[in-house]
User: What shape does this take?
Amino acid sequence: MAAVYSGISLKLKSKTTSWEDKLKLAHFAWISHQCFLPNKEQVLLDWARQSLVAFYKKKLELKEDIVDRLWIYIDNILHSRKLQNFLKNGKTINLQISLVKIINERIAEFSLLGSQRNICAVLSCCQGILSVPALSVIYTAKQELMVALLSQLCWLSCRQPEGAVVAQLFEVIHLALSHYLLIQKQQVNPKRAFGEVIGHLFQPCLVLRHLLSVGTWTQADQGQLRQALSRDIRTQIEALLCGGAFQPELLSSYKEELLEQQQGDTKIGAMKNLLTPTGAMIAKLVDTGYCEPSLHATVVANSVALLYKLFLKSYFKEGNQLLCFHVLPKLFGCLRISHLQEEQIKALTTSDWTTELLVVEQLLNLVVNNNIYNVAADRIRHGEVQFHFYCRLAKLLINHSQASLPSWFRCLKILISLNHLILEPDLDDLVASAWIDAEVAEFRTKKAQEALINTLFQTYAKLRQVPRLFEEVLGVICRPAAEELRQPVLTSGPSTVICECLLELPLNQVLDTWSLIVEKFQSLVLPHLRSDMDMALKSLSLSLLLHCIMFNMRSLDTSTPLPVIRRTQSTMEKMLRELVQPLLDLILDPQGPELEFWLQKVSDSALLLSCTWAQVDTMLSLNCSQYHSMSGALTNVTLEISDLPLLLPGVETKHWEKIGKLTAQFDSLGRYCLEQLYLQKMKRTLMHPCFHSEEALQTLRSDAAYILRSGKESLTQGTMACWDSHVGTVNDLTYPVAHWHLIVSNLTVLMSYLCPDDTSYLASILLRSLPMSKAHEDSADEEPYITLEKISKALLHSPLFPEMQSLHSAFLMCINAKCVSVLCSDIQSEKNLLKKQLPWLFEMDHTVVAHWETRFARVGPEGVDPREEVAPNLLSLVKSGFPIELDEEQLESIMELLEVISALHLDSLLTPYHVHCFLLLLSMAITTLGSACSSSLTLKFLMKSYRLLGYLQRGKNARSVLKILYVSDIFEIILTSLFKTSSRLLLEKDDSSWQEFLQVIGTFLEQLLQMLIQIKLSLVLNFGKIIAFLSSCKPYTEAASGKRLENQNSLDRQLLLISLAKLCQVLGPFVKERKQQHEASEVLPELLQQAILQTGTVLQLCWEHGALGLHLPSTLISSATTLFEADMSQHSRNRGAESSQIDKMLFSHTALYQSIYSQILSELPTLAGNIQSFRAALQFLTLFFLAPELHPKKDSAFSSLFHSVRKVLADPDIPIQVIHDIEPDLGDLFTHMLEVGSTEDFRMVMQYILQGLEVKNMWTADLQAILSAITLIKLLLNCPLSGEKATLFWLACPQIITALTLQNREACQEQSLLLTVVGPVLDTLASLLRRGEEIIHNPHHVSLAFSILLTVPLDHLKPPEYGSIFLRIHNVLFSILQCHPKIMLKAIPSFLNSFNRLVFSVMHEGRQKDKGSTDDLTVVLECARLVERMYSHIAAKAEEFTVFSPFMVAQYVTETQKVTLYPAVKDLLQEGIYLILDLCIERDIHFLRVSLQPGVRDIFKELYSDYEKYHKAKQEGEKRYSA
Assistant: This one.
């Protein structure tokens, strides 16, 4: 042993041994158990340390790779499991300071020089030391080492390293910060802690925090830093700064520095010795040498807000507001914007402004949120020091306007909310720079501007100084400026703000403002308006303000004081006489060369004021009887065509004609306002008692025509912009949208007075402006403003649209014309022939009604039946080849039009339009599709067409189609076309879209046949022709010959099978019903028999082909089910007859049914992947089980079927939701199985249930076994059990409840199993308790239910989970309360314990939270309603619960004291507890008042007071009126 020891030790120290060998020996010595060295761990670590120390002190020369390997060797030792075990066993190992120093030196070298050699190994060594408490003590014992390490680590990170080193570096920084924070908390010398942080850590920590905040290392290209780690380090840096720079012990120093220096009474000698923490901190902050110049300003800006936040966090309390303020100017002085002079507007870039303004916003928010500024205290006690600072800041912001930045608006908004006097001296400049002259385009900036204007108006509204504010606004508008460069004064944002403000103002203030604007208009604008472009624009701005005020003020009514009414009347008269009429005179007589733009703006202003005046005059006349309209009483209107003086006295009709010609030159606001005037005239005319007279109708038609045709040209042009729905933004680009909006929103007024041509024009505009493509529709929805597409889409989906029959029909005919233009675009030569064969394609709107009414009238003995014209044409076209062939582009266009048709209410069409639409859709459905059309697009087109045909035939006029086409003709036309189309389709065997298409076709054919039976129209003829066609078609003749086909050719067989199956499905029940009613007719049963035989033949071949696919299609299984059902119906009808033909038929089908049964049984788990196929399979199995003569002889059908179903339930690949969806179908199957099955079969089912509920399944995580057993229990509970089977089930019930208890206990330990297992357990338990009402007599079994409920957790759940679990617990409690009252008498405490858990959880979830939204409150409210309902059920059983009622109330108020509930939740719970208080007698109330704790007692007094005031009083009132 000694030889081993001495040999290794000597070789490690020997100069002759190579370093390669030394490292190998050292490595061997560390890992080998055969090498025994006294204190081996210490010796080897010291050897490596001494070697590195000697190398770095230049006492030893080593190669770089040897140095690397020495670092790696130390790192391996520090991270080795051996060292961990060594330390865990209580042994110690000494790290020398020299090792820690060279680690610090290396990190400093990396940070200064940027060298990365050995960096990973050095950082790993550092991490190894810091992560082990026994080793990290060397850092924590010598604080200066930790400070140096942390400082150098932060500087290293500030170099923004990349690659693998990033994650390692930040792990080390995280560890170092954690250790330093512990040291900092134990520091007893606050000045030393301050010096360490400010002197060594302040600057690197601020730079590092900034880099982390901007996500330097979390970008996509360097995603090595986890978000959580980045957040933790930022939090640690804030804690470090708080614990060093803002310690509680330094408060006095801050006060001496900030407050006494301000007072100027500090002695010079004391100043020399004073610790000035703020000055030291700011000096370090603004020092330019600690980071790159490009980064310095941003770091300073972001640090200013952080430091102020930390200062407030540490020192803010009542009485310290002034101290907290004095830090603000000093920190604000660190920002570059604080040093800007008035002329230095472009000293900073937009990016710099963005950064600094965001910081200013944060500082001001901190002032507001902490209530630092108290206006009265600042003025009385502190000489308005804060006020003057905020005024300087406000002046700075206004002098350096940054209207493109949202933060600039937000800063001004905060200053207004602090004190409106801060901005009062510069109010005009504020209004100009932030509103009137501001160029705001970006949406976020607009919202910020809107918020500022809102605050401004709300503030002056509260001060009752809105006229003063408007005076400033008018002053800015009327001052000389380049008006054409200004944006509209009132867009939707400011308009909304002013509207809200005006509604709160007294009418006198509104009238003051109104009069002020009129006076300014008269004195400053009107005299200089002629031929002055700037004045014309100012007049429009003032008109918009007047419009906004007049439209949005509160209306007069009968309760308005008479002086206000008289003043309003006077203002209206003055405005009309002195403003509106002079403006109209000005545009009627321009005097001089007409300036087109000037004339447009003046006419806009004049007509806007005219329209506004007219509408306000009408509104005041209607609402206030004491207001006398200058237009005359509404009942004394003299009717003249286009006589607008009805609304605007003093202007003659010929003048309005001239104005109309003038406005027709411009797509502008004036034209829009003139349309509004005509609309207003129509409304006033309609209010006249004689509006039915010929003169009135002529006037209404003329006005409606003018409104519609006014914007006809503009709607057909291509250039238009979206509109914000405000009148002030109507211009040449937005006018088309505004015009269309005006028409569509007033269609109910206009429609009755439009001629057919105008209606057709409206319909064409509607169709053209609809968003056809999905991309266009989505992009339109994203726009915040109104567009043509949005208006048209809203009209299309409006419930009023179908009520406007003329427009609805015209729109349908427009779609027809569009479809025909697509269909006939390539067949110009054959169009005349096509007009004879398909005349309905070429019918116009005004001819369609007359045409079809004539055709219907000709039906009779002397006329020609339309059915003899239409059907032969269509059939000949389909058979010979349809002359119209669509390529892919045309087909997509048709698909877009079909989407529009699908939005219409097709079930409410008039009869002619219904027939026309049916023929149009049918013609498109049977059109030949080009070879370029893909199979998927073809199927989509066909499905859309036949879905629409089905929707149409569910309408009220569906029978009218049968006047022109027999059902058998429709059947033949459709299937002939589809057989041809299917032969060209290239589809996979298991294509889901083909199966979906078959379902759509099947549904439509079934609908046709059902309609035929309902109206009983030539049943034998129609069904006979259908069966004859199906038996003679090519697919059936090939099937009857037994010919095998390829996949493409087998599609038409599937179509044939679906058609035959639907025929059997509809005809079978009808024949059975007629037989039961003894109606003598043997033809239909024979036809049904033929259909069954044909269906069986086709099914046989289709089944053989379908079995080759991945799974059986749902349509194939449902067809088999339909055939089987019809066959059974026939079999039961003929069971007593002796017919060899029937026996033969039954025998041949028996083999088919048994084959289908065996295949479905084997593939049942696979079919569960497709819920439709699975449902169809279950229906077939249910029918098969009802035919015992078909059951296999060898195996038990019950056993085979049960095992297949059990496999499905136990299959983990089948989602739980699928099992839940198919439970009704499984229930039907089980009902029939249990009816036929024996007692032994039932015993087998119960055995599998009990095996599935064994607790070992939970331990082995076999959840499917548990869930399948629970599902089986639910299925059995839904089956009508009787006799021995019922006895067996209820004998096993105690065992089932016990097993559910154990399963629930285990599942509740896993959060993930709450909805998966616990929910179904609770559902099953509730069902057991309900069904066992008269059967479960043992109280122990019910008490087990309480133990289940008390185990289920109700906290830390997501809202949907909470609501689901809560409801299920409530259902179990309700089942016990209602179904087991005798047992509950002995278990009331357990019941109340379970119920109180629900009450307390609702209180916990329904409490008002500091953060978060109230989106989840809906779930809590539902749960609170359940609690209230349970309280009512408890109160209904007064005798049982009277003794416990005071305790229930006590528990309720005790828990209520702990939380503040949302009012809605509180109201529901109180309504419930009031019912319990009804049960309390006077002695109980006295007991509660005496025994409750003082705080709870107050809550109870308040509750009882409300109870007596509201609930009890209401009850007494009801008793008074009860018999």
